[in-house]
Amino acid sequence: MRKPFRLSTAGMIAGSAVVVAAGAGLIVVSTKTGSGVAAAFGSAFLSLGMVTLFSEFFLRTQYLEDVLELVGLEREIHQSGFIGISTEGRQDWANLYASASSVRILSINPQAWIDREWGEVLEAARRREVTVDVYLPSPHELTVYEAAAERVSVAPDVYRSNILEGCKVLEARWKSAKRAAKPLHPKSSLRIDFVNVSPAYSLVQVDETGIILLQPTVPGSTTDDGFVMRFDLGRTQSVTTWFANRWLATDARCTGVPHYTDRQPSESAAPAGGE
Fold this sequence. Notes:
This protein folds into two domains: about 10-80; about 80-260, 2-Layer Sandwich (Endonuclease, Chain A).
């Protein structure tokens, strides 16, 4: 099959130079003869040749540099472990928890998280052994829950009530699932801890997938308006270490005895960052 006709960069430059020369020649002729037609054609040829030369010398080079820069940026993003970004409402939470064996959650907006995701966590805990660690801002420390309430644009008293009610729901549904006809896996375990700091974002780790969830701070925003950034923690050590350090810092800010746990003292918590 015959290949389509293509001009190389050198050919385009040579052709453009000929067109520029022809245009300049016609303009010179028109000044001597007074021919308007020669002047018109000369101007057209000169303009066409100059534009083509500019395109070949500058635009094509700039385009190539932009492409190379984009490829390099994409490579860096891939190496960083970044998977993608979406809104909270478009994140496929069911698929995230489907094969989970380790779940750690630091939630600044527990009411939305419980309504949307707790059922998926319970379903995973029925199918296999799953260790679940839930961290929530302490409802017993005024400065903590006031700051957290401000971040999600909720009145402090309402936020505190949401935390306490959320804990009751988590515990009650977990215990109910353990007694169900299709119960939780006998080795699945839950721990709920309060932390004495107001997190700036929610953090989720399900096995080797890490998620940073940025909540909207504009009054009237819905629970689906947050931004979800997903990372593959098995791709690069730096991101794995970052998540591991966040969980270590969270554990260090726990207020003492867990609010609830059915985990035996000999059982270890869910691994942080794959360590």
